[in-house]
Design a protein that fits this description.
Helix content: 40-55%
Number of helices: 12
Bound molecules: phosphoric acid mono(formamide)ester, norvaline
Order of helices and strands: HEHEHEHEHEHEHEHEHHEHH
Strand content: 5-15%
CATH class of the largest domain: Alpha Beta
Largest sheet: 5 strands, parallel
Shape: globular
Radius of gyration: 19 Å
Strand order of the largest sheet: 7-6-5-8-9
CATH architecture of the largest domain: 3-Layer(aba) Sandwich
């Protein structure tokens, strides 16, 4: 039995990640041309959401339908997971019934424990530590608009959060330099930074991080689950807004990305997110195509067994 999971970008090889970009682009063309591509006919995806979502839910659900399969939304409010059934037991039960499982939750440990007991592939659709599906879309978007990201420079401005940490993995896997500008005390995980070596630089000044960058990225200052820190975070992060002064430092051809949802006037100014360098709508659309490529890949590479 071989089961491939996708909990972080490190679960796939560099070649496999590049293959996903190629397939994501192909699937996008098929979708845009209205050509049927039902490679997952009869397959069922279970989607466990312990946090809110618009893009992730809709892209996985629409993606499965377009591939000829079915997606099932499960919320802790109306499953036994929310009433304390162990993650390990839920994994054993669900994976005997469905072909692939997607989870959005708080502790990264939950997806690790779930995948350890799952007979079918598990996809991390965001934890407090990582958001690898978003990176598949971001990397496809950069590739489509600017070519290979290898050797380029990316500026991450803001919180050293789950998105930032997936960007650190991306820097290693796709081979680019990542400059992170964050306030003291809001750095990404030190172990991850150390593992990525000299690809990562941490600075305090957003303009310094953006200097000459080919891609400028930010995210909310207060992530899901941190709502009680919102006031303090708004104060601390106020010098970290991506605005035209920051974009001016970047390469003239630089793109702006944000995983969304965005707060105009906080982490990004309206003129930047709604301006010509912003590719946030392409980025959001690519969640659909990149994840369809991921679903096909994991199902193709796995030979689920019996317990
Ligand atoms: N970017 C992203 O994951 O969006 P949702 O929270 O809407 O799924
Ligand atoms: N960092 C954000 C990303 C949302 C898609 C959060 O975890 O809330």
């Amino acid at each position: 039995m071989t089961v491939r999971h996708f909990l972080t970008l490190l679960d796939l090889s560099t070649d496999e990640l590049r293959q996903l970009i190629r397939r994501g682009i192909e699937l996008k063309a098929l979708q845009h041309r209205g050509e049927p591509h039902e490679s997952l006919r009869g397959k069922v995806l279970a989607m466990i959401f312990e946090k809110s979502s618009t893009r992730t839910r809709v892209s996985f659900e629409a993606g499965m339908a377009q591939l000829g399969g079915y997606a099932m939304f499960l919320s802790p409010r109306d499953t036994q997971l929310g009433r304390g059934e162990p993650v390990e037991d839920s994994a054993r039960v669900l994976s005997r019934m469905v072909d692939i499982i997607m989870i959005r939750t708080f502790d990264h440990d939950t997806v690790e424990r779930f995948s350890a007991f799952s007979l079918t592939p598990v996809i991390n659709a965001l934890t407090d530590m990582h958001h690898p599906c978003q990176l598949l879309a971001d990397m496809q978007t950069f590739h489509e608009l600017r070519g290979d990201i290898r050797g380029r420079t990316v500026a991450w401005i803001g919180d050293g959060n789950n998105m930032c940490q997936s960007y650190i993995h991306a820097a290693t896997q796709y081979d680019f330099q990542l400059r992170i500008a964050c306030p003291s005390g809001y750095e990404p995980d030190g172990g991850m930074v150390a593992e990525a070596g000299d690809r990562i630089t941490i600075v305090r000044d957003p303009r310094e991080a953006a200097r000459g960058a080919h891609l400028v990225v930010t995210d909310v200052w207060t992530s899901m689950g941190q709502e009680n820190e919102q006031k303090k975070r708004s104060r601390t992060f106020s010098p970290y807004q991506v605005n035209s002064a920051v974009m001016k430092e970047a390469d003239p051809e630089a793109l702006f990305m944000h995983c969304l949802p965005a707060h105009r006037g906080e982490e990004v100014s309206a003129d930047v997110i709604d301006g010509p360098q912003s590719v946030v709508w392409d980025e959001a659309e690519n969640r659909l195509h990149a994840q369809k490529a991921l679903l096909e890949f994991l199902l193709h590479e796995s030979t689920p067994g019996q317990a």
